[in-house]
Amino acid sequence: MGPVSAGALSGGAPSPAELPESPAVWCSGLRKRYRRQTAVDDVSFTVRRGEVLGLLGPNGAGKTSTIKILLGLVRADAGEVLLLGRPARDPLARARVGYLPELFRYQPWLTAAEVLALHVRLAGATVPDPQRRECLATVGLADRAGDRVGGFSKGMQQRLGLAVALVARPELVVLDEPTSALDPLGRADVRDLLLGLKERNVAVLLNSHLIGEVERVCDRVVILDKGRVAAAGTLGELLGGRELRLRLGGVGEAATARLASAGTLHRSGDTFTVTLPADHDADLVPRLVADLVAAGVRVHAVEPSRVSLEQRLLDILRASSEGATR
Ligand SMILES: Nc1ncnc2c1ncn2[C@@H]1O[C@H](COP(=O)(O)OP(=O)(O)OP(=O)(O)O)[C@@H](O)[C@H]1O
Ligand SMILES: [Mg+2]
C-alpha cells in the first residue's frame, strides 16, 4: 500500500498529484475465439509501472493474441483493458506505448533512420534528431543508420524494431519475442536495455521462449497454456524457496543445530543442503557462514541454487495437460 494522501484523510477529492499511479496494463476477463479455436480464455493480469512482466507459454498458448488485444490490434470477444489508466483505444494512451511486433518487416526501400523518422511521425511524437541517433546507437545500429533496411539481416531488422518501439520514450513497452533473431551479444544488450528501462520506471511486457532470459530480467511472470493463465506470480513465488548447498568439515553438534535453524537440513557425507524459507532475509547466508566459522567448522563451499524457471514451466505445463486429459 502506498502512503495515505492528505486528500484522502481530509475527505476532500485528491488532487491528480495525489492519485496513486495507475498500472501500466490492467486487463480482466479477456476472451478471443477464432472460429472453433479458442485463443484467449479468461485472461486477467496487471503490469505495474517500472515492472518487467514476462508472458510465457508454448506455441499457440495465446501470448501474441493477448498482446494484440491489449494494444487494440485485435478485437476481444469479451474483457476490459486499461493502458496507463486509460481505455486501450484512447490515442493518449497509445501515444505512450512502444511495441515490437512478433513478425517485423520494415519498408525495404527506406534507410534505418528513415524508418525511425516515419514511426515517430506516425506516433504523432516529436523526437529530436540527436535522440533518434542515440536510439539507433542503443540497439547497435549507429553505423547502419543510412543503409537501406532491405539489405539488413534478420537480427538487424529486429534491432531496428526495438529502436522503433523505444524511440518516442514510451511509458509502457510491449515486446513480442524481442530477441528471437538476436545473437548472444545482442541478447545481453537487450537485457541491459530492459534493466535501463526499469530504472526509468518504464513498464515492460515481454514474451519470449528464452526462459533463462526471462528469469534474469522479469519481476513477475504469467504462464499461459491453451489460452488460460496456468500460473502467475513473482519469480520467488513461482520458484519457491532457495536451497543452499554447503561442503563442510568438522561439523559438531552445535554447528548442526545452527544449520538446522536456518531451514530444513539434509546431510549426505560432507555436503549439507539447507532449504531456506521463501521470505528469508538477505543476511541469512553471511550470518550462517560467520557462525559456522566461529564454531570451528571448515567451510569449503557455499552454493545457492534453486529450481530453474524452465523446469518449473515444464512442470506447470505438464500438470496442466494431464489435468486436461483426465
Ligand atoms: N488471425 C488468426 N486467425 C485464426 N486463428 C488465429 C489467428 N491468430 C491466432 N490464432 C490462433 O490462436 C491461438 C493462439 O495463437 P497466438 O499467436 O496467440 O499464440 P502464441 O502464444 O503467440 O504462440 P507462439 O509462441 O507460437 O508465438 C493459436 O491456436 C492460433 O492458431
Ligand atoms: Mg506469438
What would you note in describing this structure?
GO terms for molecular function: ATP binding; ATP hydrolysis activity. By secondary structure, the protein is α/β, with parallel strands linked by helices. It has two domains: 22-238, 3-Layer(aba) Sandwich (Rossmann fold); 241-305, 2-Layer Sandwich (Alpha-Beta Plaits). Helix content is 36%, strand content 26%. The protein has helices spanning 6-10, 63-70, 91-94, 112-122, 129-138, 154-166, 184-199, 211-217, 235-239, 253-262, 284-294, 309-325, and strands at residues 25-34, 37-47, 52-56, 78-83, 86-87, 97-100, 172-176, 203-207, 220-225, 228-234, 243-249, 264-268, 271-275, 298-305. β1 (25-34) and β2 (37-47) form a beta hairpin. α10 runs antiparallel to α11. The relative contact order is 0.12. Magnesium ion is lined by residues 63-64, 102.
Note the main attributes of this structure:
alpha/beta, 6-stranded mixed beta sheet, 4-stranded antiparallel beta sheet, disordered N terminus, Rossmann fold, 26% strand, Alpha-Beta Plaits, binds magnesium ion, binds adenosine-5'-triphosphate, globular, 2 domains, 326 residues
The gist of it:
The protein is an alpha/beta fold and 326 residues long. The protein is built from twelve helices and 14 strands.
